[in-house]
Amino acid sequence: MGITETGVGLASPQADSSDAGRDALYERIAAEFSAPLTRLARAHEADPSLQQDLVQEIHIALWRSLAAFAGRCSLRTWVYRVAHNVAATHVSRRSRRFDKRLVDLDDVEIPADAPDADRAVDEARMLARIHDLVRRLKPTDREIFVLHLEGLGADEIAEIAGLSLTNTGTKIHRIKRLLSERLSQGGLP
After folding, report:
1. Which residue pairs from 96-105 have beta carbons closer than 8 angstroms and sit at least 24 positions apart in sequence?
2. Which of 11, 49, 56, 165 yields a CA-CA distance of 20 to 30 A from 18?
C-alpha cells in the first residue's frame, strides 16, 4: 500500500522496512506538519529557545516511533498523538523544575492589562494573552484547546487525547465559553 493524501491506506514502516520508505514518510510528516508542530510548541512553552528544543524533541520522537506506526489511525492523528505526548512530558518536567501551578479551565485567569487598558489592544497583545492562557492550562485541557484551534474535530481530538467523545465535546464547549467570557472581560476585540 502506498502513501495517500488523506492518510488512509498508509504503508507502515513495518510493511516497508527500507530506510528510503521510512525517510520518505518522515519527510512528508516534517513538511506537512511543520507549522502545526511549531504552534503546538509555542502553546506549551513560552521561551523561544525552549520552543525550538521542544520541536526538535517532537521530531525525534516522531522518527523513533515510525516503526510503531501501523496505519491503524490517520497519519495526522498519529502525529498529533506523538507530539502531544512529548509536549505533555516537556511541560511536566518543566513544571516540576519551576513548580508552576497549572489550573483547570474554570480557574484560569487572564492577566489584566497595564493601567492603560482603555486604549485599543493590538493583535499581538491579544495573541500573547491567549498563549499565556494556554500555557497555564493542565496538559489535557491544553491539548484539547490546541487541537481545537488547529481545526481538528471532536472525534479526532478524543482519539488523540484518549478521552470519550462526550468528555471531549464538553471540554471544547467549555473552552469556547472561556474564550468568550474571559477575553471579552479583558476588553479584547
Report:
1. 102/136, 102/137, 102/138, 102/139, 103/136, 103/137, 103/138, 104/137, 104/138, 104/141, 105/137, 105/141, 105/171, 105/174, 105/175, 105/178
2. 56
